[in-house]
Amino acid sequence: MPRQGILITGTDTGVGKTFVACGLAAALRRRGLSVAPFKPVETGCELDSTTGQLVPADAMLLRQASETDAPLATICPYRFRMPVAPWIAAKRENREEGDEGKEIDPSFLAGQFQELASTHDVVIVETAGGVLVPLAERFHFGDLARLLNLAVLLVAASKLGVINHTLLTLEYLHVAGLPVLGVVLNHPGNDQSPAIQTNEKALRKLVNTRLFVLPRLPGNHPNPDDPLFQELAAHILASLQ
Predict the structure, then answer these.
(1) Element holding 202 (H helix, E strand)
(2) Fewer C-beta neighbours within 10 Å, C or N terminus of the chain?
(3) If we measure between CA atoms, which residue out of 173, 182, 199 comes closest to residue 233?
């Protein structure tokens, strides 16, 4: 069964997954492909006082970068206000609404993914946090990657501790039998501590997969013409053949 998309996950929250996903989506669009983002669950959503709807900020950025007309409801089917793991957010907020039995449904997510995949060349799936973050009590993002037949691109923020976090995540992916496309080492800040100066060299020696390095880029919006995103796009396309 050919792959119809990839899973972008991170070593932690706030490591730059959405930034990388947006840059990759735009770079793939530059190559003439139709791209759909899929953010199965977004937590920490703000409430729009006008519409009364929860606003999935990351999903909206992904949709804009992908230039797709796919409905936001399909791109991000589950939204919660609490900035916690999706499983916990679902339990808490559904309990408040008097529906304790309602949970995130993996089969529903698979259906939404297939709807996007049937009308786009590539689907970029972004996790909420890391690959083992639970969507339900016995179902996490690693399980979703297996269910949807996705290879994994891991984003890591260059900071103290990133070596351990990266190796632990790669070890899980290996044990789980999930194919790894590579690691993107992101430099989100201006920290020049010894760890930041040595992380890239250390990871190049320690990881058994391709390492892409995202330098400090000006502004908050990725440039799809940046060599890193062009290289990533070519690599992803080759993996989907």
Answers:
(1) helix 194-206
(2) N
(3) 182
Spatial separation of the C-alpha atoms in residues 69 and 154, rounded to whole Å: 27
- pTM of the predicted protein model: 0.94
DSSP string, 19-62: HHHHHHHHHHHHTT--EEEE-SEE-SPEE-TTT--EE-HHHHHH
Question: CA separation (Å) from 72 to 7, 20, 57, 148, 192?
Answer: 18, 20, 11, 20, 39
pLDDT (tens digit, 9 = 90+) per residue, 131-178? 999 999 999 999 999 999 999 999 999 999 999 999 999 999 999 999
**pLDDT tens readout for residues 168-226:** 999 999 999 999 999 999 987 667 788 788 999 999 999 999 999 988 765 667 888 88
Give which of 15, 10, 23 is closest to 221, Cα–Cα.
23
**Residues 37, 60: Cα–Cα separation, whole Å:** 9
Length of the chain: 241
Element (H, E) at 155: strand 151-157
Please list the residues that pair with 156 across neighbouring strands.
185
Tell me phi and psi for residue 223, to 5 degrees: -95, 110
| Whole-angstrom distance, CA of residue 80 vs CA of residue 172 | 27
If 0-12 CB within 10 Å is exposed, 13-18 middle and 19+ buried, where does residue 74 land? middle
Q: Which residues are catalytic?
A: 39
